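Hi support team,

I've been running sequence recovery on a batch of backbones for a student project. Most finish fine, but this one hangs at about 90% for roughly twenty minutes before it completes. I'm not sure whether the input is malformed or the queue is just slow. I've pasted the structure tokens below so you can try to reproduce it. Let me know if you need the job ID as well.

Thanks,
M.K.
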């Protein structure tokens, strides 16, 4: 009798485990971009530090799904069909605090554009590595929000196409208050210059407000 009970318990556990394995995986996709006037906003893409929040209407769990924003401003999440609300995370990102809500019904795939107002944008970016191992850069910092001030801006270099204030092999901060910027930095101390691998560079601007910097596009310099 004891052996029969043990066998029944084992079979029950196997049945439960198989039941869990047989749950359908989500097949629908929410894709989109965080943008300003239709242009994507560059952010830090590593560390999952910039995120939106996704709520499903009528769902019993109140905790949101965290939707992480990539360095090019894009985001993507696979999830089940349903009615959803997408909102910004409070005091997160290089833009005015934004808790605007986008409501939509998901059936299959959908593209969502989440508009924000950044403190600054970075325009006319040029980054060039010369034969003298000096990195020349020029760019313009445009103020979008009238009361915003620049805390500092950054010149960043990385071995990979992920470049930000957390992932880099070279970083220099500037606090001169310039908005039309031209720089030249000697990178001869970087051992990566003598290797065969590529190098990538990027500009970041941190406002006094907000918890993150806004970034330019990533440019391959080697």
């Amino acid at each position: 009798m004891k052996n029969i009970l043990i066998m029944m318990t084992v079979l029950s556990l196997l049945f439960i485990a198989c039941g869990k394995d047989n749950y359908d995986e989500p097949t629908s996709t929410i894709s989109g971009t965080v943008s300003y006037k239709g242009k994507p906003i560059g952010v830090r893409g590593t560390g999952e530090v910039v995120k939106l929040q996704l709520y499903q209407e009528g769902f019993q769990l109140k905790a949101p799904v965290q939707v992480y924003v990539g360095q090019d401003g894009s985001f993507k999440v696979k999830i089940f069909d349903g009615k959803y609300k997408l909102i910004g995370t409070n005091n997160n990102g290089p833009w005015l605090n934004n808790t605007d809500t986008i409501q939509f019904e998901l059936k299959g795939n959908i593209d969502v554009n989440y508009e924000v107002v950044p403190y600054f944008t970075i325009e006319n970016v040029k980054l060039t590595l010369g034969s003298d191992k000096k990195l020349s850069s020029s760019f313009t910092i445009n103020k979008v929000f009238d009361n915003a001030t620049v805390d500092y801006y950054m010149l960043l270099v990385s071995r990979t196409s992920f470049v930000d204030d957390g992932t880099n092999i070279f970083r220099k901060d500037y606090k001169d208050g310039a908005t039309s910027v031209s720089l030249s930095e000697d990178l001869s101390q970087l051992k990566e210059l003598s290797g065969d691998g590529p190098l990538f560079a990027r500009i970041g601007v941190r406002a006094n407000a907000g918890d993150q910097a806004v970034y330019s596009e990533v440019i391959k310099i080697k």
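--
Follow-up from support: It reproduced on our side and the slowdown came from queue contention, not your input. The first helix runs from residue 2 to 21. No action needed from you.
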